[in-house]
Amino acid sequence: MSREDQSLGLYVHWPFCKAKCPYCDFNSHVSSQVDYAAFQTGMLAEMRHLASHLEQPSKLRSIFFGGGTPSLMPPDLIAAILAEAEQIFGFATDIEITAEANPTSVETAKLTGFKSAGVNRVSLGIQALDPAQLHFLGREHSVTEALAALALAQTIFERVSIDLIYGLPGQTPVNWQATLRQLLGLGLDHLSLYQLTIEAGTVFYTRQRQGDVLTGSDDVVAGLFEMTNATMEEAGLAAYEVSNYARDGHECRHNLTYWQAHDWLGIGPGAHSRFDRQGQRVGLATRRSPQSWLEMTALKGHAIETECVETPMGWANEMLMMGLRLKTGIDLNLIEQKCGPRQLWLDQNRLATHFEAGLLQFLEDHNGDRLATTAEGRLLLNSLLADITR
Ligand SMILES: C[S@@+](CC[C@H](N)C(=O)[O-])C[C@H]1O[C@@H](n2cnc3c(N)ncnc32)[C@H](O)[C@@H]1O
Ligand code: SF4
Fold this sequence. Notes:
The protein is α/β, with parallel strands linked by helices. The protein folds into 2 domains: 8-257, TIM Barrel (Alpha-Beta Barrel); 325-390, no CATH class. Helix content is 41%, strand content 23%. It has helices spanning 36-51, 75-89, 105-108, 111-117, 131-136, 143-156, 173-184, 203-209, 218-234, 253-259, 290-300, 312-323, 332-339, 348-356, 375-379, 381-388; strands at residues 8-14, 60-67, 91-101, 121-127, 159-166, 190-195, 238-241, 244-246, 263-267, 272-277, 280-286, 304-309, 330-331, 360-363, 370-373. It has a 9-stranded mixed beta sheet, with helices on both faces. Strands 10-11-12 form a 3-stranded antiparallel beta sheet, with no helix packed on it. A 3-stranded antiparallel beta sheet has the order 13-15-14. Helix 7 (173-184) links the parallel strand 5 and strand 6. It starts with 7 loop residues before the first strand and ends with a helix.
């Protein structure tokens, strides 16, 4: 693949939230005092430093402000980061610049400032449309606030996506179908619909170990997943990735950068970068603790803590793991070009078994070499991957 076909993305991690949600294991912290000026200095320095790791910096095709809660960032800080990014890399003419936002009224009031700063896509964390479910998830906003935030965001931005979490205890197919119908009436072109996962280190994890039932049963959740795919597809929103639904052309370009194993740089506490360099796949990660990240960037101009170069097998596994999340799958020839013959990284016998079971398929539109999961296979993705990779 030529450099022109590759997209370079920039991820900016904002590690603060108003409150910590009981299910969330992202690198997010609650802090009453944040030194925005120091974060700006650190992030600009780290961006300059990371650019020097690339063989040949290409123009940015996407930028993603994720968190934590980036809607807590001052718009001026966003503007400063975007100005520096444009100066260092240049922007593709159709660059996608997304900010995650929580739908509380204070944050919603800042959306116009985000637009002026250069953001052109917003991803709103609505999470549920039922007061009891929002309460269960420990959210800081009401259903009314969430819907008002969405309506306002849609007047400011052409591209708005929302996040919801399903598979909650007691959530029935009837209840979830009603939510899906309501979502479809909201005029959205992109939605991320996640199954609730109990992550180690979270409050939910501790509660589950103490015996609380915090998710629906595997069978019920599998049914909700299938229902979600069918309902969304029927409404013209393709399940283009395990948890992501979009109308044609409205897919999240930044996330596609990850799933298609293109290059990206990540700045801020705990951010990861991955890019090809001299035929190898390089991975970098910065220090996770916000305070410690600030101290290290002040000292060294970056807070990179680990640097690894993938083995060809590790790189092939990464491409399979990411690519098989996508409905369009992954080109095995491309993996071979980078990582060597497929028998080194793919178990052909196991592959055949999963073809027969209807979990994997070759997509016909690509010379038979595009491996993809079926909808059923995407439901069992983790065990499938463990089985077919070497
Ligand atoms: C970085 S987080 C949140 C961004 C923003 N702070 C918010 O809360 O809306 C991105 C998304 O991941 C999803 N998420 C986080 N933890 C999850 C979990 N344990 N299970 C399922 N989805 C989760 C949520 O839908 C969330 O909106
Ligand atoms: S879900 Fe969002 S608001 Fe809640 S703790 Fe995680 S990043 Fe923060």
